[in-house]
Amino acid sequence: MSTTPSSEQDALLRAGIDRSLRHPVMFFLTSGAAWLAVSILLGIIASAKVHSPGLLSSCAWLTYGRVFPAHLNALVYGWGMQAAFAVIIWLMARLSRKECTMTGTILTAGHLWNLGVSLGVIGILSGNGTGIPWMEFPTFAWPVLLVSYIAILIGSFIQFRVRPEGHVYISQWYLLAAMIWFPWIFITANTLLHCIPGHPVMGAAISAWFRSAFIFLFFTPVAIGAAYYLAPKVTGRPIFSYSLAKLGFWSLAVIAPWAGMQKLTGAPIPYFLPYLGAAATALIFVPAATAAYNTIRTMLSAEETLAVSPSLRFTVAGIIGLIVLAAAAVFLNLPGSTLPLTQFSLSGYGFEILAIYGFFSLVMFGTAYFIVPRVTRREWLSSRLIKIHFLFSVYGIITVALITLFGGLQQGIGQEDWKQPWAAAASRAYPYAVANTVAWILILFSNLFFLLHLALMWIGLGRRSSHPTLLQSAHASSPHGAEGDIDNAGPATSH
Asked: How far is CA 29 from CA 24, 35, 69, 197, in A?
């Protein structure tokens, strides 16, 4: 493949950027994948305890009240946040066209983050959790996580500031916003919960708002920002509409902060709050549909690329998950019909899992399959392992979503019937819990392969290739610059 001096210089620049971030990116992805496996294993135990309460009953550390929150917190902070960090630091460097100068600091922050997550999960399992959903980590874990996050945040802003003056990519909009929004929602929630005394019910309302804001103001913009990078990068076509991308961004910024309170319909809180939350959650359909339409239109007429690119397959699956999530947000929050049925049932859990795994995680997988060959300078070892990961992940999350969303509705119908005992209503969820356990086992199986694949790539067992991410050609028309052959970009062993 012939290259012009300019394209060769660009290839060297990209190679330098990728080398500078090899170890931080691979550390975040690999440790995140390890926490994902731990989370799924804990989720299997929690799900099994719903239909088999006596399972592991002799071990206090593995009671449902400890395993279930440990499962969710490991999923959110162990996997979700670390996958986001890997994508953010790599994309910021790539789009700024500057090598990272804080590699050591970011890598140290990654070790601190894992220490904080470990302390938090162990604290929950040992009975020291706070009992506040998604904030169950004991107080001694949060300072470690805070220090780590501040270091990564500073590194991201420095990387953004050194970009060439001029155009700011829409991906950078979403990623920077996510990094700013998370401290805001976390500090706000903790201030209202711990520093301002109030009624316990308001504490539940704040917790519900925090979980919703976490999903829509951190995980969602990170995933959309990654999709807006991958779609044009892999297909070689510009974003269909930059105006639509900005519309989606600002509509998300305006609507998302108001969502979440619908989880407390009928509670002794101001009457308008649950309905405001329900309306905002339903209106999330606007930015979700905008991002999905824009991304899919960008990838139209790229069937051949879709067939050979695992990045596109996972991204498309994640975008479809976003559409399903937005539709579920509308369907599950209809006042007077479905809204009262979903508050204390499997449906709430299903909605959160659909958001974190069915949308966010699938896009992160696609991004990882794009990034890893570039930072390791190696090709993925096995396309078969990638296909297994894709199929089991997609089928597994479809099963989990259907079972929890619809099973939760059946459970909610039983709970609304005040004439029957609570145990009878809870028993409605029994068959769904069994199927949910089986689905999580499938997902665990697929992600163990993903973890193994990542670890083998990190230690350099993949073969050198001029066609990273299993693509059969480079796309010189990409608005982010042609990738070229990675063999033209310097030695594979230099860091």
From this structure: 9, 10, 22, 39
Of 2-11, 15-24, 321-330, the poorest mean pLDDT is in 2-11
Q: What's the CATH code of the domain at 328?
A: 1.20.210.10
> What's the confidence (pLDDT) of residue 467?
54
Structure tokens at 392: 């089991």
CA distance 297 to 79: 30
Q: Is the CB of residue 269 less than 8 Å from the CB of residue 202?
A: yes
Task: State how far the Cα of 359 lies from the Cα of 363, in Å rounded to an integer.
Answer: 6
Count CA atoms within 13 Å of residue 420 on its CB side.
Answer: 13
State the pLDDT at residue 116: 97
The answer as to whether 423 is a domain residue is yes
Q: How many domains does the chain have?
A: 1
State both tokens at 30.
Answer: 């690999």
Q: Is residue 460 part of a domain?
A: yes
In a domain, 198, yes or no: yes
Q: Is 289 exposed, middle or buried (0-12, 13-18, 19+ CB in 10 A)?
A: middle
By residue range, what is the domain housing residue 102? 5-488
For 396-450, write each residue's pLDDT tens digit: 999 998 888 888 877 777 777 767 776 766 677 778 888 889 999 999 999 999 9
> What is the pTM assigned to this prediction?
0.91
